């Protein structure tokens, strides 16, 4: 098993505890070796992303998309055909699946669309105003004294 030492990261960073557990989970979870269904993750603009899954043969009613505690879960449950069919060769996957994607902080699902056998889930990074960078003014010693004098006169 591969171990990654994140001690240097923790020495100079604060609040990245979750990253260690995400890396551990990614290295530990080798359950999904089938790669079904295949998917793409792309950037569609600044702070915008899309996950596209190839779900040929699935209808909207067969798919379930949920977000809980920073994990996007996509499930597909194929209903059995009532007709008995006799196949000479069966190459189209017709099985249930579950895919999980860990979402970073402030990533929200903005919508989903099923078109031509491709399920596209749109994501957007929405950083709250309180978390955006802001400039802090540095007051000189003289300016601080002048400000105190002005506030004393007003009071």
Q: Which value, in Å, is the CA radius of gyration?
A: 25 Å
Q: Low-confidence segments, ≥5 residues, pLDDT <50?
A: none
| Overall morphology | elongated
Helix content: 10-25%
CATH architecture of the largest domain: Sandwich
Task: Explain what the structure shows.
- It is built from 3 helices and 7 strands, in the order H-H-E-E-E-E-E-E-E-H.
- The chain is an alpha+beta fold.
- Strand 3 (63-68) and strand 4 form a beta hairpin.
- The radius of gyration is 25 Å and the shape is elongated.
- The termini are far apart.
- The relative contact order is 0.15.
Keywords, separated by commas or semicolons:
155 residues; three-stranded antiparallel beta sheet; alpha+beta; 2 domains; single chain; elongated; Immunoglobulin-like; 7 strands; four-stranded antiparallel beta sheet
Please write out the topology:
Layout: H1 7-12, H2 17-28, E1 39-45, E2 48-54, E3 63-68, E4 71-76, E5 97-102, E6 107-115, E7 118-125, H3 141-154
Antiparallel strand pairs: 1-2, 2-7, 3-4, 4-5, 6-7
Give a quick rundown of the structure.
With 155 residues, the chain is an alpha+beta fold. The chain is 21% helix and 32% strand. The longest helix has 14 residues, at 141-154.
């Amino acid at each position: 098993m591969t171990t990654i030492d994140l001690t240097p990261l923790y020495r100079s960073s604060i609040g990245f505890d979750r990253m260690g557990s995400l890396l551990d989970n990614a290295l530990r979870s080798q359950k999904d070796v089938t790669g079904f269904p295949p998917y793409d993750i792309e950037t569609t603009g600044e702070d915008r992303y899309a996950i596209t899954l190839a779900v040929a043969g699935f209808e909207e009613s067969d798919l379930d998309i949920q977000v809980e505690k920073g994990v996007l879960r996509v499930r597909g449950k194929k209903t059995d055909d009532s007709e008995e069919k006799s196949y000479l060769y069966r190459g189209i996957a017709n099985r249930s699946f579950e895919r999980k994607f860990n979402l970073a902080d402030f990533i929200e699902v903005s919508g989903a669309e099923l078109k031509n056998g491709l399920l596209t889930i749109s994501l957007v990074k929405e950083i709250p105003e309180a978390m955006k960078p802001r400039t802090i003014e540095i007051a000189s010693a003289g300016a601080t004294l002048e400000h105190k004098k002005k506030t004393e006169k007003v009071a």
